[in-house]
Design brief:
Strand content: under 5%
Oligomer: single chain
CATH topology: Na+/H+ antiporter like fold
Number of strands: 0
CATH class: Mainly Alpha
Number of domains: 1
Amino acid sequence: MSLAERSQPLIILGAACFGLVVGQAAGIAALAEALILPLLMLMLTGAFLHVPLRRLGEVRRHGSVAALSLAINFIWTPLLAWLLGWLFLRHQPALWLGLIMLLATPCTDWYLVFTSIARGNLPLSMALLPVNLALQLLLLPVYLLLLAGAVVPLAWESIALSAGQVLLLPLGAAVALRSAAQRWRGEAWLALRVLPAIQPIQTTCLALAVAAMFAAQGSLIIQNPTIFLWLLAPLLAFYAINLGLALGLGRCLGMAYPNVASLCCTTMARNSPLALAVALAAFPAQPLIALTLVIVPLIELPVLAMASQILLRVRAGWRCASMSV
């Protein structure tokens, strides 16, 4: 993991604090609010550039393990999100909705870092990446209407239009840029020169979007200082449940450790930037939903780092268990 990747929680926290400070100046809030969505769309374009959608079919090579990851991500986890929201946030509907949006969108990049740290099956995780992206683009509006619609009234037209605006435009731009780069200089140049250079730009766009969000909504944050505490319990419960579920299924099904580590990472990491972009477009009058998704990386990244260390400790015992069979 690079220094920038290790520092991302601190970068996000610093950006949030910076936004709170500068947001107190006259006229800054309105300007900051206008910058949030364009910055996130730029960041998503960079993120989508890393996803080779033409490799969607490769996931079939990984058989039942890949199918299990997809089932946990797109069937089990959305239902778990609704249940955790009901248990912990039913008196905070905006936070409940933000939690559903977050947990219904599996990560499409970060989990590769933690899979590598945990010595997981990277080819499996990379094969899942385009499928995770395609399915969440298709299913997020459905989850919002079916699950979030039970929390607050939603209009399907608004959801579909907002999701299309903030997801399909960056996706289309990324596909066009990827195709042009491959034709011009080839796949190797794209992978070795372009994509590594884009990663710092993505982090910068995300940090600026977070700063703009906190600058635009500083007064709301000050009025609701306990948002972090409200979210801590359901998020920690989610990570613990999915980690335990993946380890338990891996043990019961006799899976090799690298596959288990990949299963854990792919079913724990979430795509908060994508969910944040949709929240800003679909729910502009409910900024607490977006603030929920801004705060989440401050919890998620340390937890994933801890989970990867837990998996490394499990690895030795998993080997011994396999040798004794």
